[in-house]
User: Fold these one by one.
Assistant:
Number 1:
Amino acid sequence: MQALAELKDQIRKALPELDVVIGWQQGYDALHTRPLFIRSEEDIDKLVVNEFCVVNPSSYLREMRGGKKVGLVLKGCDSRSVIQLIQEELLNKDDLTIFGFGCNGVLNHAKLQARFGDIGYIESAESDGNTVNLVVAGNKETAPFAELCAEKCLTCSYPNTLQCSHFAGEESDKKAEAAQDKALEEFEQLSMEERFAFWQDQMRRCIRCYACRNACPMCVCKDHCLANSRQPKWLSEDVDVQNNFMFQMIHVMHLTGRCVECGECERACPMDIPIMLLRRKMAGIVRDVFAYNAGTNAEDTSPLMRFEVEEPTIEERH
Amino acid sequence: MSGSTGLLTEGQDLRIVGFLCNWCSYGGADTAGVARFEQPTDLRVIRVPCSGRIDPLFIARALLSGADGVLVSGCHPRDCHYAEGNFYARRRLEMLKQFLSVTGIDPERFHYTWVSASEGQRWQDVVTSFTERIRKLGPAPKMSGGTGYDEECLKEIAAAVSLGEQCPCHKEKA
């Protein structure tokens, strides 16, 4: 891949100025990557960029505040979370060096597993953004990208890294497969009672491990999270439907106008609860009402931090 | 399905939580009281300094804890005692209002509006029509609901294990 060689070159040149560069390296098999922290020249060769680079490296930034010079290799969607953090003055733009590239989308392990039985059988998978070529138990298989990709890639309009200092390779011209969120639309066909029942079933499975919160690049409160607060006490230690649901409400409400829909919460969920439905709904409302996409412009102000005296898009409630 | 207890029995009270701002709506409710306007008695009022003080999570918490309805009322836009609290509140409350539908909580159970301290008559109308609306919707569905599909799964697993088979999640997939 040409972009990868260029990326490595750019990182090599920039590394002396930087404390660390965060990217991805090959994981324990062909289908997994894990985060890579480049601190020296030797580490650079471990860098990989492929359709399994699902982790959002900017989630590590909250641990790194305080003047460290950090480089980041970011997909388009990941770069939005960095822009949002800069906008909120939680990061200093001057401390960051962003290495960008054109992304053709990432694949979803749960979908691979559903299709091929067990991802252990899959020896390799490569995607060009339209079709995925796989080797499954020795046999070559192909599948349309849209059937195996992460849900967020279906509606992605930012395949290229935004506001990056270095850009490697060619820009991706990947278009969103659908303007509308099909999964959400389908869900909204259900009646209120069915939706309520659905979430209760899902929330009963939740073990409240807070993986969704910890993976979220926008959850910057760390030890001061409302969910752990004793005074006021928002959540009890009980792991029941009501408390789990309330925790999701807290997460969604705190992400209103901030969520960049990177999908890390849902990916990190060990119970595979489709919590992105809630986030995507909220982000959609913000788009509809305020014509605002979080994390696309560091100079902008989040819609809930400002107001208009006359709100043309909000129906007056009598 | 959702565990709703069905229709209200005659005379049963609803649990409606009202968040009223100190300067306008609480005064408006007081005006209605002083003028002896007849009002439904299902509303429990929580007085807050300003509608801008209301975290949408207050409302979410009330609804998830079994409130049948939540009514929020503040000063009319441009009339906020703190000049701009209700402008921020309007944006937040609108977000919550539109969001609730995806959670399966009927957005009709939540209403926000503006009532000034002199509008005793308007307060009576707001409370009466909101209570009427909630009365039609009936009590909120209980949290113990769901389809119970997970319990079915557990039973299946228990049965499989008791027969000496592996649990379904570890069975070799065909």
Note: Chain B touches chain A through 44 residues (CB under 8 Å).
Number 2:
Amino acid sequence: MAAEQVRTGLHFMSGDEACAEGALAAGCRFFGGYPITPSTEIAEHLARRLPEVNGVFVQMEDELASMAIILGASAAGARAMTATSGPGFSLMMENIGLGMMLELPCVVIDVQRGSPSTGLPTMPGQSDVMQARWGSHGDYESIAYAPWSPQEMFDLTIHCFNVADRYRLPVFLLADEVVGHMVERVAVPACDSIEHWERKHAATPPGEHFEPFKITDPDLVPPIVHAGEGYCIHYTGLTHDERGYPDMTAATHNELVTRLVEKVRVNRENIIRTEGYSLEDAEIVVIAYGCTARSARQAVREARQAGIRAGLLRLISLWPFPEEEIARLATRARSLIVAEMNLGQISREVERCARRPARGVFHAGGMMIPPDPILQAIREASA
Amino acid sequence: MTEPILAEHHPLDDLIRADRMPHIWCPGCGIGIAMRCYAQGILDSGLPVKDHVVVSGIGCSGRVAGYMNLDSYHTTHGRAIPFAMGIKLAKPELMVTVFSGDGDLVAIGGNHLIHAARRNIDVKVICINNFNFGMTGGQFGPTTPRGAIATTAPYGNFELPFNLPYLLAAAGANYIARWTTLHARQLKKSILEAFSKPGFTFIEVLAPCPIGFGKSNNINDGLEEMELYRDRCVMARQGEMNPEELEIDLREDKPILIGKFIDRDRPPFHPFMKGQS
């Protein structure tokens, strides 16, 4: 069983395949999705692999249904996932909001392509990052990670499941076409060394008085119970009280929505991940994520060779945004540069946290930003 | 005068969330009767109550999930069926019922409805058909008869409605029946049949919506619509489906076919698993 579940060893695989293997290694046993380039390989791989581990693969009629079915599976206790790209991510927004409101853990993979609309189906983009933050209506705080390699497609998919289960919400893996289709070495660890964060289950036995959305822990996460366990609990997308019952009052609404936002904010130190390259003495800091961070690292290397004190802050998580870290960097770096494959989305966050303008290296998508324009921006900043 | 009999306990007390009463439904509404039939069906099913799950979408009928003392999920508009599929496939031992209205299941959720029927997923659908969008105040929908007055069809609805049993039969459901809220016993029996029928089952329940639909279409109250059911309903012969005969227009003096239309045993949806093959 374990051998089938986790393919321990060194592999040469694409990011999409690594993501699918990461999901299996995390214990994901349910996939519902709709084919869409450039994420389809994830579905294809899981269509073959899930039956081997007694998991469920369902191809749905659209992305509305894909998001709904994984929430249902999660409500019954399964680790469940879907994979899509921008156009499908747009359709999922409705039930992503439901997942935030019902606090049902699941993982949504978005392998980004050139957008808006049908855009560039086979070519990369990074323009869904604000959609991942604000895409569904209403206030909520989202969690998103941006892998820069097939290895991270594997590692971060596992991490997404852990974070989703721990904090009870849909979690996003914002990959891009480059990372999804890139083939690289992927090291799959031994089964017992894979981290597994459990859902916090209710301690009250079924039949006793239980208020499913009552908060007793400082992490603001309510303990979960699943369909069929005998709790007879009610979940609704309406504003609800601690019993889970609809309560359409301004006071309950404010309390509930504030908690949904705060439960991510108070736990942000366990969620946020970044990585620095040559940051110690950097005067010019490049901020990048996903495939663009690969070019940015190269640009920083070349700048260092030219004697410029440049560094890279790679955002492994995009949401919640690492506000404190950006603010700290801004106090000691002379210049901030944001490189991203959109026309300035994360750069707005950087400017907000740094409280000053950042230089942007933007491209609307369709091709990876090469190191040269980033190096050029570093040179201009150092001049 | 004889002494009144006071019952300490109603058989459905444990199945209905008394702390959620009063309900939101209007006087004369038929949803409560259908919900009562569903609750009785659960009691009579012989399955432990904890193995029954109800999923609803949005609308008046969607509120049923909130009133049933079960694991109950009040989801998004139109998406109850795929949500229910997730529960059923993750825990096949559960009896998963989707209880929702025609606007939710057939308008915004129409695509999921036909695909669930095509897959023949083992989910039990109870579809209240009150010929309009009731909760939002009586707009026309995909089941509103042509010519009927609605708040968004002030000159009469100029669209043709869906013929639900015929649609679902073509899509592939294993079990299709139609009753009205006048036929409570038959409806309960039909729900029990659906529970014991593997695959996708669909029960259409015609229900009065005196405020949303009736008052603007010369059906003055819920009772008048029930009388209309009594006068016009005709039992269909199983297996015979003439599409024209299945059409409904409460305003016309023609029979309303009710009964069980389809009862067949196509293989239910089952995900492939190597361990079980």
Note: The mean pLDDT of chain B is 95.
